[in-house]
Specification:
There is one protein chain. This protein folds into two domains: about 5-95, Serine-tRNA synthetase, tRNA binding domain (Helix Hairpins, Orthogonal Bundle), CATH 1.10.287; about 110-415, Bira Bifunctional Protein, Domain 2 (BirA Bifunctional Protein, domain 2), CATH 3.30.930. The strands form four sheets. An eight-stranded mixed β-sheet has the order 1-9-10-11-14-8-7-2. Strands 3-5-4 form a three-stranded antiparallel β-sheet. It has twelve helices and 16 strands. By secondary structure, it is of the alpha+beta class.
Length: about 425
Amino acid sequence: MLSLQQIREKPDWVREGARRKGEDAPIDEILTLDAEARRIRAEVESLRARQRTEGAEIRGAPSDEQREELAALKHRIQEGEAQLATLDARLEELLLMVPNPPHESVPYGTDPDDNVVVRNWGEPRRFEFEPRTHYEIGEMLGIFDFERATKISGSRFALLRGEGARLQRALIAFMLDLATREHGYVEVAPPYLVRREAMVGTAQLPKFEDDAYHSDDDMFLIPTAEVPITNLYRDEILEASQLPISLVGHTPCWRREAGAAGKDTRGYIRLHQFDKVEMVRFTTPEKSLDELELLTRHAETVLQRLGITYRVLLMCSGDTGFAQWKKYDLEAWSPGMERFLEVSSCSVYADFQARRANIRYRSGKDARLSFVHTLNGSGLAIPRTFAAMMETYQERDAAVRIPDALRPYMGGVERLSPP
């Protein structure tokens, strides 16, 4: 969230940031309520000072008139405090509705067509046959069972069988090992259910509450591992010497909203439940933009080791998201579907999440506390990476070659073949 001080001092900057993102921001209401709260707070403080002065002047037992005067002051103070509590609660609600203004390097735009391709890697494979989609290949291999998944859980759920399930497990293990052994991340295995305040801390709430799976006891199934991992340091003070902190975790993720109605209803693309490896970093404000470049390269390395053609997009302001300060998307080429699939978003939030979760750091013994900057990125989303990999490595008979990077995790298996 933004601080109330930022909105007081730079309301036009905040309004412009919201406009660039295509978001509404209740700036006028915040400023009006803030002015009223400051007026009442000053009045209450004045009344308290008067109460102390008049109380100190009383010698012996107070007279009836003095008792009435002190009681009236106490009543007025209590009324003011009640008004302040109401105003402060409403201000807190409104502050959570203000989006994070995009960084100045984010290009202005209103839709995905305005995103900027910053680099490409690899060349799309040329086939001597008509490439199939991953779900066609999976059906021929017998590794997908969407029909039974629907019977168990409804639409937009998937079930993998046999070597397909094993290949997905290999993909996850490879991503975690790359992050921990080569890129310096510490692996964590977090809870999958989190409290409301954890969802607020990473800005999933209140804006995206309708998209979340919510239990009767006010717990939420995580939409991404970003939520529990970022909140590991909630309400804590870190030392600058600890930063940057680099954490990685694999979790299932749950989201009610699975894309536009009727879009990508087939295959392993838009699901209510999917697996993802997530990288989270905590750093100082001076280094956060450099950390974003590093985080993005770490995600790219996964695709490079798998030999999957991809591109990196700098997202425009209208496609950056409510909480992100700046964001890159990685899109893998899917030969069978003949399109790019988003497999990772790498984002920096400045102190937007840290203010919500109250994550601060100290740069020295007597230094003033500051909020950390947070970052996260998929390393990678499993289903779409799995789909792009199958389509990239397919053969004429619907067999799929296993990328070299995954063979040690597959017991040396080199290809999946139709039964």
